[in-house]
From TrEMBL:
Alphabetized PROSITE patterns for the sequence: RRM (PS50102)
UniProt xrefs under Pfam families: RRM_1 (PF00076)
Name of the featured protein: CUGBP Elav-like member 4
InterPro entries the UniProt entry points to: Euk_RNA-bind_prot, Nucleotide-bd_a/b_plait_sf, RBD_domain_sf, RRM_dom
């Protein structure tokens, strides 16, 4: 079953400063966000890991921030189950690698309040990890 989620894009640029690219039309059709425990569903090279998110950001705010760079197919801010507070990191998946690269170039180091975002490609699950 396919759901469409409509989001308003204009709210956060006014609060947190202007995004580096033009904001698209206020209503954009996107796929529903992923729930905890589900894998990020974009093709390889399309999944971003975003660190240093503001504490108050949820899935919708994260999606709104990345919509200017392409078709966002999922967004997820991770929440600490014990405290129900944001862990201040999340994932965004695009439908193509070019959008992901554009988002990295534009948003890595982007300042929101006192924080600077760190945006990078998510490592594949089979990537060797030192620990």
């Amino acid at each position: 079953m396919m759901y469409l989620l409509f989001v308003t894009v204009a709210a956060y640029p006014a609060v947190y400063g202007q995004f580096p690219q033009a904001i698209p039309q206020p209503m954009t059709a996107v796929a529903p966000t992923q729930r905890e425990g589900c894998s990020i569903s974009g093709p390889e090279g399309c999944n971003l890991f975003i660190y240093h998110l503001p504490q108050e950001f949820g899935d919708g705010e994260l999606m709104q921030m990345f919509i200017p760079f392409g078709n966002v197919i999922s967004s997820k801010v991770f929440i600490d189950r014990a405290t129900n507070q944001s862990k201040c990191f999340g994932f965004v998946s695009f439908d193509n690698p070019a959008s992901a690269q554009t988002a990295i170039q534009a948003m890595n180091g982007f300042q929101i309040g006192m924080k600077r975002l760190k945006v990078q490609l998510k490592r594949p699950k089979d990537a060797s990890r030192p620990y």
